[in-house]
Amino acid sequence: MRRILVILLTAAGLVTLGWAYDLPDLGDSSAAVFSSQDERALGREIMSDIRSDSAYFDDPESVDFLNSVGNRLLAVSDDAVGMRFEFFLIQDPTLNAFAMPGGYVGVHTGLMLAAENESELASVLAHEISHVTQHHIARMIEAQEKNMPFSIAAMAAAILAARSNPDASMGAILGAQAGMVQSQLNFSRDNEREADRLGIQRLIKSGYDPRAMMTFFSKLQRFGRFYEGTSPAYLKTHPLTTERLAEIQDRLLNVPYRQVQDRPDFQLIRARIAALVGTPREALHYFEGRTLDPKRPEERPLIYGKAVALWRSGRLDEAMQMLDTVRAVSPPNALFDSLAAAIVHDQGDYAKAIGMYQAALRHYPDQRALNYGYIGSLLDAHRDQEALAAVDNRLMLTRSDYRLYNLQARAYAHEDKQLLSHEALAQSYLLQDNLTAALDQLQIAQRSGGGDFYENSVVEARIKDLKKQLAAKGKKGGGSRLSDHLRDHAL
Questions:
Q1: Model confidence over 265-276: pLDDT tens digits?
Q2: For residue 364, which of 12, 169, 175, 428 sits 20 to 30 Å off, Cα-Cα?
Q3: Nearest to residue 240, comparing CAs of 13, 78, 427, 57?
Q4: Nearest C-alpha neighbor of 248 from the set 205, 206, 203
């Protein structure tokens, strides 16, 4: 059985993560790069563990905004044609972002809060996209084949470990054999320069301010000077050297200056994240003591953020009053409509909340949070057939949204259609790449005794197919999931 060291590329450089078993035989250098399918499969395996962790920050509004920035960059990226990307958030106060195999790009909530404008956030995503499009991960694996270095830590565990003790996690990585580390650093610096160069091009083509890359990376370097023991995670593996910053500055010399206006939602999303991370008490404390004058445009996002924090704390009347103050002086916004309807829902007035969601959806039909809130309110009002119809309408547009299947499962459970309910849950787990949980749900569905002949036949066929897939994975991975094996061997 062959083993290959798998790595993660952060925006500051290489993090070595662990050994993967029975990955494709890379052969000589000409065949040493993962296929797109191999990279995607490996990324999905890691994401399965990340999604199941409490640090996975699956707030629809925040994630949708992050993906809108990423997709704007991808729209002008010729080297990304045919590639799939998913941008996601991890609740972590450190400043970090990372690219994984298969186009998965993670961003810490701490970085979202540290970015002062949308172009700074875009500069990080542009850099990470370049790591993926240039197949730096596969190229690193090729280099590791020549050096055969040490095992460091498990993939998902390493990504999430910094949440509790970033210094210990990085200390394990940096405490390895000096010679091997140096050879990896030399290779990764080339990757970083390439990602910087291509990232700047993406920023220019997409209409963002390319100077934001220099601004944000310089900010990280300053943070590293002031906080020696707790410098940003960007700087833990490979420092942002003066040479690298000088190269970025040189590339920007002949770029004409132009002022780039942030979208209104950028500051609102930053305030929303601040209201949703940590405990409710910590979130409220973040906004207390701040001057919140709705007449000052720069303070309106903070007013919205405090309304979110009050809603989260259950202080619903205060939350609505706070939200009304900012809505009265601001243009219409889906974020305001979604929060207002959620507050009314939590006050127990489901009929009014449904009406508010319906009105908002006429203006913002594709806003995920509004759709989830609307369907959830229908379910709480026991209008299950309407909820199912709404789910079906959304599934006609996208069949890859696991939350819709969770809502569908609730509706079927209300109608005591247990087979269909558990089948919907199985589909939700499949979309989260959790095959074992999906199989469990299908087996429960089979034992439920409900459904007609056709529905039972479909469930039986899906059970057989999933068992084959799990058996194939077991043969490849020694009977355990890749990420489980890696976690067992973490330092």
A1: 999 999 999 999
A2: 428
A3: 13
A4: 203
As a whole number of angstroms, the distance between CA 119 and CA 125 comes to 10
pLDDT band at 136 (very low <50, low <70, confident <90, very high): confident
**Would you say the C-alpha torsion 296, 298, 302, 303 has a positive or negative sign?**
positive
For residue 319, give both structure tokens. Answer: 């939350």
Number of other CB atoms surrounding residue 289 within 10 Å: 7
Question: CA 128 to CA 132: how far, in whole Å?
Answer: 7
pLDDT digits (tens, 9 = 90+) for 112-132: 999 999 999 999 999 999 988
H/E element, 402:
helix 402-414
Residue 289, φ and ψ in degrees, nearest 5? 80, 0
Other residues' Cβ atoms within 10 Å of the Cβ of residue 132: 25
Dihedral pair phi/psi, residue 101, rounded to 5°: -55, 145
Distance CA 213, CA 250 (A): 12
**Per-domain boundaries in the chain:** 3-259, 402-491
Choose among 273, 272, 330, 276: nearest CA to 300.
330
**Global confidence as pTM:** 0.84
CB of 80 closer than 8 Å to CB of 94? no
